[in-house]
């Protein structure tokens, strides 16, 4: 309380809210604590709404392509068939699934190559974007209202989701996956969480981005990103964008060759399967070896047999008997979820549909096949193929490649090869085919 000396109220006592202890406390709480919550803590002159908007525009194009190719990768596994799905309770998230086609034969090689290469190329853009908005993570007070709390929660899902999805994807590509549980359900569900938060984010931020990109120069602290007291610049915003672009270009050059092949394969320095595996007919990339999946050499020797079943009937074949059957050829690549692929290899062997017919099956007309391997440990010891895959004339139980017997690393004594199928569904070391069991 204090004396009011104004002409209209001389001698009266007026109310001073600053003198109330509770009010002083609330004002102190509104003051940000020392550290990153203080506006002056972040002093880089590079940060600003225009810089962030340029990076956001790149991600606005790249992330949807990444998401769509990821959905196609999931569909390529035919997850609704027996034994193929490792993502339980996907429910309506699998609304788009369809029978994966066999034409063009390079389809999976293209979609998964784009998915992995683009994901790696976007890493510098993503990191720069997160760096540019990091002051927004420390705004004070942390929660201003219910609406602000929801906005902060969506930001948590956005940042956490994108970091999780990119981390799991890159670790899987590098064959150093360390997260608990299977990569497939974690990456699948994580991607849906991220894309939901991404859609919410762009719905609210696109107008700001468009205004910033239309302006010829930075418009100040319109979005709370520019420092109120910037330090002396060491690089311009244009130069910083150039560094990010150069980083993405470097990752493209050192990664894309594993999918493109040819002379570029030797440039894939950061790709685990990017280098020349050696000369000879079997001189192309290998995903897993017999020793790595618990196969003993004697299991692939003279005692190996192939069991073919259909409708309660069964036949057993030696490798020599399989070679005595009519042999067909198909020029097909192998493409894996890690993003690497081979060029077309010339495979020869027995058509899957013919093997089914030998035991009275109707493979290729209305039934698929369940393929089992000698492999005793590790993922994808079996795979189910659709009827359209079995019925394709290029779908073989391959016995030879490029004019030579398969090597043990490539599936000797026999392996499946199917056009446009993910590499892990081209099962190696096949020991049993059951038609009509998918």
How is the topology of this model organized?
Blueprint (H helix, E strand, L loop, with lengths): L1 E3 L7 E3 L6 H10 L18 H28 L30 H15 L1 H10 L13 H28 L9 H32 L22 H17 L3 H4 L45 E5 L2 E5 L1 H6 L3 E5 L12 E7 H7 L10 E5 L8 E4 L1 H5 L4 E6 L2 E2 L9 E3 L12 E6 L3
Parallel strand pairs: 3-12
Antiparallel strand pairs: 1-2, 3-4, 5-6, 6-9, 7-8, 7-12, 9-10, 9-11
Organism: Streptomyces chumphonensis
Protein name: Molybdopterin-dependent oxidoreductase
Keywords: Membrane, Transmembrane, Transmembrane helix
Mean pLDDT: 86
- What overall geometry do the principal axes of the alpha carbons give? elongated
Rounded to the nearest angstrom, the distance between the terminal CA atoms is: 84 Å
Unreliably modeled segments: 1-18
Strand fraction equals 5-15%
Number of domains: 2
Strand segment count: 12
Largest sheet, described in full? 5 strands, mixed
H/E topology pattern = EEHHHHHHHHEEHEEHEEHEEEE
Report the structural category: alpha+beta
Radius of gyration: 30 Å
| Tally of helical segments | 11
- The amount of helix comes to 25-40%
**Adjacency order of strands in the biggest sheet:** 4-3-12-7-8
Organism: Streptomyces chumphonensis
Keywords: Membrane, Transmembrane, Transmembrane helix
Protein name: Molybdopterin-dependent oxidoreductase
GO molecular function, one term: oxidoreductase activity
């Amino acid at each position: 309380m204090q004396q009011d000396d104004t002409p209209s109220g001389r001698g009266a006592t007026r109310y001073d809210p600053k003198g109330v202890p509770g009010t002083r406390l609330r004002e102190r709480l509104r003051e940000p604590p020392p550290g990153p919550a203080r506006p002056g803590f972040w002093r880089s002159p590079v940060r600003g709404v225009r810089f962030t908007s340029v990076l956001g525009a790149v991600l606005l194009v790249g992330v949807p392509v990444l998401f769509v190719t990821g959905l196609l990768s999931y569909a390529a596994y035919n997850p609704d068939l027996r034994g193929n799905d490792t993502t339980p309770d996907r429910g309506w998230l699998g609304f788009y699934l369809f029978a994966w086609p066999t034409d063009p034969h390079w389809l999976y090689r293209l979609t998964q190559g784009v998915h992995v290469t683009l994901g790696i190329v976007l890493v510098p853009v993503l990191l720069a974007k997160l760096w540019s908005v990091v002051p927004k993570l420390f705004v004070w007070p942390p929660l201003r209202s219910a609406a602000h709390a929801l906005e902060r929660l969506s930001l948590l899902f956005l940042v956490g989701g994108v970091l999780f999805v990119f981390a799991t994807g890159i670790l899987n590509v590098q064959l150093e996956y360390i997260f608990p549980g299977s990569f497939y359900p974690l990456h699948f569900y994580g991607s849906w969480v991220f894309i939901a938060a991404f859609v919410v984010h762009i719905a609210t931020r696109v107008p700001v981005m468009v205004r910033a990109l239309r302006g010829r120069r930075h418009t100040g602290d319109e979005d709370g990103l520019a420092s109120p007291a910037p330090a002396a610049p060491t690089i311009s915003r244009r130069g910083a964008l150039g560094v990010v672009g150069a980083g993405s270009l470097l990752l493209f050059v050192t990664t894309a060759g594993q999918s493109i092949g040819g002379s570029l394969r030797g440039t894939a320095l950061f790709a685990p399967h990017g280098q020349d595996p050696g000369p000879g007919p079997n001189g192309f990339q290998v995903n897993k070896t017999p020793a790595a999946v618990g196969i003993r050499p004697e299991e692939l020797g003279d005692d190996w047999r192939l069991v073919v079943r259909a409708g309660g009937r069964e036949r057993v074949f030696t490798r020599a008997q399989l070679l005595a059957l009519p042999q067909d050829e198909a020029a097909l690549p192998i493409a894996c979820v890690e993003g690497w692929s081979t060029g077309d290899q010339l495979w020869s062997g027995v058509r899957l549909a013919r093997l089914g017919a030998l035991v009275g099956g109707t493979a290729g007309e209305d039934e698929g096949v369940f393929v089992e391997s000698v492999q005793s440990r590790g993922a994808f010891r079996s795979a189910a193929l659709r009827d359209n895959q079995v019925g394709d004339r290029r779908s073989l139980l391959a016995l030879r490649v490029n004019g030579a017997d398969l090597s043990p690393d490539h599936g000797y004594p026999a392996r499946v090869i199917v056009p446009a199928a993910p590499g892990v569904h081209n099962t190696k070391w096949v020991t049993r085919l059951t038609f009509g069991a998918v």
